[in-house]
């Protein structure tokens, strides 16, 4: 909070933002008392709040700013942080038990207790999320520990005891986010940031019912203008909180209608009737009236009866369907004539057991402004300040993608910590590849990676930042998730097997280099075929005579014999590596046969009629010999054919229809990876000295380890996350290498 050279202690600034007025209190706590150095109360100029909830944020912010300015002038320094309390409208409470086991017997510290509290809050939030059947999103505004346990035995205080396990029963209170957002917005308009927030009945009970009274079954009712907030104690702890939306304004509105006055005049009539025998006022016609206070009491009695009936019913509900032993009343609404007597009757209690609490509970509060009277109206404002010391936040609050979250401050928080705490998927922080393509080539797995998408766009207070930017308290963080890239695309002609795998055939004594054709799932496909997920691609190690002719773009004279390895063949005969083919060519460039449309020959080369069947393996040795012979002997028919077409007698490489050798282009798109041994094995790193294998990617960054290592990123509970890579502080985007040493753990924060 605020430091000053005028006062001995740092100052705490608390605001009680009520339905009718705003009360600001500035003070500090000593060992024995709370010292109020300045206090100021200002009524709202209009009905900007109803039933404890802000309706006109601008007007409420304007009132808060005026209170702040007045207090600053009183203390001679600027106020920047404030403690606030929320009214319990649409209040939800969750009671639960939480335990924490130490690795070995340990002396319990205050930090351990604080961590236990935070674990309880997280558990309560999870419970509420499951049971929430409303449209509201709820936010934790306060908690009270009902009972502590040391090694499963009840204890009033855990600190400094040795324990293997500590536990607690805790009651956690929640309000809708829109209620909390309204308070934050109004405070922000006055140039303030929230240092601590609690619930109004929690603040009130810290002052009105000291701990030594909490063994008794007592109800505390804080009656404001718009709401009546209730809390109940028993067996040394606070057992329940509640609220009803009926309070002082119900009476004021009745007076407005009955006496034809404006709201402010009705408020004065209500207050005066409790202090004077007669009340004088002017109605909206400017006619002056003087009436006995008893007339006002008689008028308001039905409303007081309704209010006390509902408050008594709520107290009994919170107390297990039975009355309490006593009830304390605080807040300005408690001064209504006849309220305490009527509530005592509804609770079946003697009248003296339901009483206003003001000066009696403010004995340990000192006001430097001597003109201030100790009054029930001041109980909640003082309690808001004291709550800062009891539940001082070790966390900061931010809004993440529209949702308010708490982060436990270790002075090293970054944007990525907020993302992890909010449960934002880490894969949406970094660019995502499009869907990969998996297939096989000749039985070997292949992977084609998809294209990378765009990185997440991260904004803090409308400023473009990155994931390692330090977090600012009360900031507004928006992360637009990273995008996924295009899915992987690969065609047959992009495969190495298409561009670099070829077979040699001897055609009319010349070496012809033919690319090996590719089959997909047993069918021959065009080079432009887009491979699909799970396709089985096989390299075909043969051509048919017809396909060979089509590849060379020649028209074969069918009136002459076709010879394959010197045996008579047909257009469907198979031609393997190093086979010889002899035919007579009628013309070049006339073939119109598409290799993909030709039938797939399934039979091996057959001999001429009357001959014996030979397989490719049986003829391979023979073919090699024939190739040598073809190169050394100039056959008359072949020479004549070459001379006729102007072809060289020297063997040449033929890869296209014109006889010119052409290079096949390398793949232009996609990243084709053969599933080698390294890809299969992945990357091995050591996390906390344990080997962990990362698989499924070509490369990895630090944040990827959370997909393979069991580590709960949401279980911070007030602790700092330690992330080290090879002994150095790790960045979440750091690239990992084989054998990297990683340290990953939670560390308690020393305060």
CATH topology of the largest domain: Nucleotidyltransferase, domain 5
CATH class of the largest domain: Alpha Beta
Main β-sheet, in a few words? 6 strands, mixed
Strand neighbour order, sheet with most strands: 11-6-1-2-3-19
Average pLDDT metric: 80
* Whole-number total of structural domains: 3
Number of helices: 15
Task: Fill in the keyword field for this structure.
751 residues; alpha+beta; Nucleotidyltransferase, domain 5; 3 domains; six-stranded mixed beta sheet; 44 strands; 32% strand
Task: Produce a short descriptive summary.
With 751 residues, this protein is of the alpha+beta class. It is built from 15 helices and 44 strands. A hairpin with a 2-residue loop joins strand 40 and strand 41.
Provide structural commentary.
The chain has three domains: 92-390, ATPase, nucleotide binding domain (Nucleotidyltransferase, domain 5); 403-488 and 677-747, no CATH class; 492-644, no CATH class. The model is unreliable at 590-680 (pLDDT under 50). β2 and β3 (34-43) form a beta hairpin. The chain has 15 helices and 44 strands. It is elongated. It is of the alpha+beta class and 751 residues long. α4 (200-208) packs across α9 and α5 crosses α6 (263-273). A six-stranded mixed sheet has the order 11-6-1-2-3-19, with helices on both faces. It has a six-stranded mixed sheet with strand order 30-29-31-22-23-39, with no helix packed on it.
Mind sketching the topology for me?
Layout: E1 12-17, E2 21-29, E3 34-43, E4 49-50, E5 53-54, H1 57-75, E6 81-86, E7 92-107, H2 110-131, E8 138-150, E9 153-155, E10 162-176, H3 177-189, E11 193-199, H4 200-208, E12 218-223, E13 228-234, E14 237-244, H5 248-259, H6 263-273, E15 278-282, E16 288-292, H7 293-318, E17 326-330, H8 339-346, E18 354-356, E19 365-367, H9 379-390, E20 395-400, E21 403-408, H10 415-421, E22 437-441, E23 444-449, E24 457-460, E25 463-465, E26 476-480, H11 496-499, E27 502-507, E28 510-515, E29 517-520, E30 523-524, E31 536-540, E32 542-544, H12 545-552, E33 554-556, E34 562-564, E35 567-569, E36 574-576, E37 580-582, E38 585-588, H13 616-632, H14 636-644, E39 671-674, H15 677-681, E40 683-687, E41 690-694, E42 720-725, E43 728-729, E44 741-747
Parallel strand pairs: 1-6, 3-19, 6-11, 12-17, 17-18, 20-26, 22-31, 27-37, 40-44
Antiparallel strand pairs: 1-2, 2-3, 4-5, 7-10, 8-9, 8-10, 12-13, 13-14, 15-16, 20-21, 22-23, 23-39, 24-25, 24-26, 27-28, 29-30, 29-31, 32-36, 33-38, 34-35, 34-37, 40-41, 42-43, 42-44
């Amino acid at each position: 909070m605020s430091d000053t050279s005028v006062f001995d202690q740092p100052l705490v600034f608390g605001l009680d933002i009520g339905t009718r007025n705003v009360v600001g209190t500035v003070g500090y706590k000593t060992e024995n008392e709370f010292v109020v150095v300045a206090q100021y109360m200002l009524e709202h100029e209009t009905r900007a709040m109803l039933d404890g909830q802000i309706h006109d944020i601008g007007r409420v912010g304007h009132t808060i700013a005026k209170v702040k300015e007045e207090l600053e002038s009183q203390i001679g320094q600027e106020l920047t942080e404030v403690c606030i309390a929320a009214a319990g409208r649409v209040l939800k409470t969750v009671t639960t038990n939480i335990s924490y086991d130490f690795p070995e017997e340990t002396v319990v510290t205050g930090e351990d207790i604080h961590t236990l509290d935070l674990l309880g809050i997280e558990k309560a939030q999870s419970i509420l999320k499951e049971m929430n059947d409303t449209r509201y999103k709820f936010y934790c505004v306060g908690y009270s520990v009902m009972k502590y346990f040391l090694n499963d035995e009840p204890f009033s205080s855990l600190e400094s005891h040795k324990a293997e396990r500590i536990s607690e029963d805790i009651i956690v209170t929640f309000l809708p986010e829109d209620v909390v957002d309204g308070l934050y917005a109004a405070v922000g308009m006055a140039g303030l940031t929230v240092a601590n927030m609690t619930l109004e009945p929690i603040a009130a009970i810290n002052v009105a019912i000291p701990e030594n009274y909490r063994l008794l079954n007592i109800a505390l009712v804080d009656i404001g203008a718009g709401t009546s907030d209730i809390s109940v104690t028993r067996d040394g702890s606070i057992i329940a909180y509640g609220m009803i939306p009926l309070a002082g304004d119900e009476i004021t509105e009745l007076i407005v209608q009955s006496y034809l006055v404006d709201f402010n005049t009705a408020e004065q009539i209500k207050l005066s009737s409790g202090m004077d025998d007669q009340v004088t006022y002017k109605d909206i016609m400017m006619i002056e009236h003087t009436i006995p206070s008893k007339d006002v009491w008689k008028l308001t009695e039905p409303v007081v009866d309704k209010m006390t009936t509902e408050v008594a019913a709520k107290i009994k509900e919170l107390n297990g369907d039975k009355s309490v032993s006593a009830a304390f009343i605080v807040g300005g609404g408690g001064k209504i004539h006849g309220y305490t007597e009527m509530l005592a009757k509804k609770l079946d209690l003697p009248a003296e057991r339901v009483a206003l609490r003001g000066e009696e509970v403010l004995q340990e509060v000192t006001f430097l402004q001597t003109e201030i009277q100790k009054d029930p109206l001041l109980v909640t404002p003082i309690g808001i300040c004291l709550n800062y010391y009891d539940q001082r936040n070790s966390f900061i609050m931010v809004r993440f993608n529209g949702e308010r979250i708490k982060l436990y401050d270790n002075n090293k928080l970054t944007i990525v910590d907020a993302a992890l705490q909010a449960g934002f998927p880490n894969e949406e922080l970094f660019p995502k590849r499009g869907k990969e393509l998996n297939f096989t080539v000749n039985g070997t797995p292949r992977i084609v990676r998809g294209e990378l998408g765009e990185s997440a766009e991260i904004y803090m207070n409308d400023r473009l930042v990155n994931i390692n930017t330090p977090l600012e308290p009360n900031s507004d963080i928006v992360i637009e998730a990273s995008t996924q890239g295009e899915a992987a695309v690969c065609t047959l002609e992009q495969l190495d097997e298409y561009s670099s795998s070829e077979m040699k055939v001897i055609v009319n004594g010349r070496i012809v280099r033919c690319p090996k054709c590719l089959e997909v799932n047993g069918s021959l496909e065009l080079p432009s075929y887009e491979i699909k997920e799970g396709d089985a691609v096989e390299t075909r190690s043969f051509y048919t005579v017809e396909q060979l002719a089509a590849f060379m773009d020649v028209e074969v004279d069918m009136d002459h014999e076709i010879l394959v390895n010197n045996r008579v063949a047909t257009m469907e005969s198979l031609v393997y590596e190093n086979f010889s083919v002899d035919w007579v060519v009628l013309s070049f460039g006339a073939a119109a046969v598409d290799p993909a449309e030709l039938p797939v020959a399934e039979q091996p080369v057959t001999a001429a009629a009357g001959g014996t069947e030979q397989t490719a393996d049986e003829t391979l040795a023979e073919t090699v010999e024939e190739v040598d012979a073809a190169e050394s002997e100039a056959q008359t028919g072949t020479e004549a054919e070459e001379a006729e077409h102007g072809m060289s007698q020297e063997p040449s490489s033929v890869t296209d229809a014109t006889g010119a050798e052409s290079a096949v282009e390398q793949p232009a798109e996609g990243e084709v990876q053969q599933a080698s041994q390294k890809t299969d094995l992945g990357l091995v790193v050591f996390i906390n000295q344990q080997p962990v294998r990362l698989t499924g990617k070509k490369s990895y960054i630090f944040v990827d380890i959370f997909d393979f290592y069991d580590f709960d990123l949401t279980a911070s509970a007030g602790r700092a996350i330690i992330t080290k890579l090879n002994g150095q502080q790790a960045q979440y985007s750091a690239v990992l290498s084989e054998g990297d040493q990683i340290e990953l753990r939670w560390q308690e924060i020393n305060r």
